[in-house]
Write a structure and sequence with these properties.
The chain is α/β, with parallel strands linked by helices. It has two domains: about 140 residues, 3-Layer(aba) Sandwich (Rossmann fold), CATH 3.40.50; about 160 residues, L-2-Hydroxyisocaproate Dehydrogenase, Chain A, domain 2. The chain is built from nine helices and 16 strands. It has a six-stranded parallel β-sheet with strand order 3-2-1-4-5-6. It starts with a strand and ends with a helix.
Length: about 325
């Protein structure tokens, strides 16, 4: 019976639990939080809706409840403040993630760990290194949400259902992320060809404007409402579904690369096949020269921060 543990009963963790409840992906959902009363209240609230959804057992738990979990999702973090980048959160969140890993590992070495805590690429790297688990068993939510934002904006501009838009964002989940314009497909055809034969007479598609809109979406949402939760929870649900149902879905999750795309010892997002055991394959898609250069630059930015995390861990100090 599919069992999902969510560590962190804040807005992202509880929205994820709610979306999992509605979709019926899991039959057991456990919320763990340092504020146990908060987790109890969140679970109670969702349990009152059980008559309207598929059967599921939702409760506030403790770390021993991680035993037998299929997926453990780490969402606990220090919230991103207005004006902060995701990389600004490294100092606080690395210690939180390492503490969570220490609490999880006595009870399971089999569950797939899904990291959502920002900056997600750095936190995924920290969890891989600190847990000692196989890299393909530890993944981050990466740019699954960024890719969805890319789909949405393209669909809005071209007046086409986002389900018929195929486009990837790779690299850092953050300011250096790379939109793969060369790979965009609209209803199976290239973006250039799709627009060339369009009779709507709309303004030409501004790639720079859409790129900036994708990269800055989170900042605009944080400015407007304080945090993001709905989009990332739906993206995470998509990942959890791929794992529990063994879908072999192609998703731009964050994971450790060791030679793929010419990148080593760095967690970032590239298209991966995700199934029951985590990542079964990293897909090395063809990039144009600019995209390849931008991806390596993104990797270097992340590697520089990862070295700080590693050095601080070895020295026993905060990053």
């Amino acid at each position: 019976m599919p069992k999902v543990v969510i560590v962190g009963a804040g807005s992202v963790g509880t929205t994820l639990a709610y979306t999992l409840q509605i979709t019926g992906v899991a039959t057991e959902i456990i919320l763990i939080d340092s504020d146990h009363e908060l987790a109890l209240g969140q679970a109670m609230d969702m349990n009152h809706g059980l008559p309207f959804v598929p059967p599921v057992h939702i409760y506030a738990g403790e770390y021993p409840d991680c035993k037998g979990a299929d997926v453990i999702v780490i969402t606990a973090d220090a919230r991103q403040k207005l004006g902060e980048t995701r990389l600004d959160l490294v100092d606080r969140n690395a210690q939180i993630c390492k503490s969570i890993v220490d609490s999880i590992t006595p009870y399971t070495s089999e569950a797939l760990l899904l990291v959502i805590t920002n900056p997600v690429d750095i936190m995924t790297y920290a969890v891989v290194k600190h847990s000692g688990l196989p890299p393909r068993q530890v993944i981050g939510s990466g740019t699954v949400l960024d890719s969805a934002r890319f789909h949405y904006l393209l669909g809005q501009h071209c007046n086409i259902d986002t389900h018929n838009v195929h486009a990837y964002v790779i690299g850092e989940h953050g300011d250096s992320e790379v939109l793969l314009w060369s790979q965009v497909r609209m209803a199976g055809t290239s973006l250039e060809l799709f627009c060339r034969h369009c009779a709507r007479g709309c303004a030409p598609l501004d790639k720079t404007e859409i790129t900036e809109a994708v990269k800055n979406s989170a900042y605009h949402i944080i400015e407007a409402k304080g945090s993001t939760n709905y989009g990332v929870a739906l993206a995470a649900t998509n990942i959890v579904e791929a794992v529990i149902r063994g879908e072999n879905s192609a998703l731009t999750i964050s994971m450790m690369l060791n030679g793929e795309y010419g990148i080593n010892e760095c967690c970032l997002s590239v298209p991966c096949i995700v199934s029951k055991k985590g990542v079964s394959r990293i897909v090395e898609t063809e990039l144009d020269r600019a995209e390849e250069s931008d991806l390596k630059q993104s990797a270097q930015i992340l590697k520089d921060v990862c070295r700080r995390v590693t050095s601080s861990a070895e020295a026993g100090t905060r990053v």
